[in-house]
Write a structure and sequence with these properties.
alpha+beta, Glutaredoxin, 4 strands
Length: 124
Amino acid sequence: MSKTFPITIYHNPGCGTSRTALETIRAAGYAPTVVEYLKVGWTRPQLETLFKAMGVRPRDVLRRKGSLATELGLTEPSASDDQILDAMVANPVLVERPIVVTPLGALLARPADRVASLLRAAPG
């Protein structure tokens, strides 16, 4: 029987850290809503809401691994939040993962054991 505390994980099944975070949530008895954001993409309002809940700027959640962020000039200090957000909507892979959202808050679960802090605070 799964616990009813609502958890959403923005997940990339190809990412080991994301898989570990998802396994941790499930092992704790929760049935999270899994959003494979590489398939469904992002909207700008969705990212703005997530980043506000996390207390971060787009640059803080920009995935720098790989060359796309560099190729697009997003790692340059002159890149604005608007430019980074637009690029994240156009190229969902530019958002670090996994992002976990609960009624208690949202966080980038990187490393994956960061999700444990949210689970410890969850009721039930």
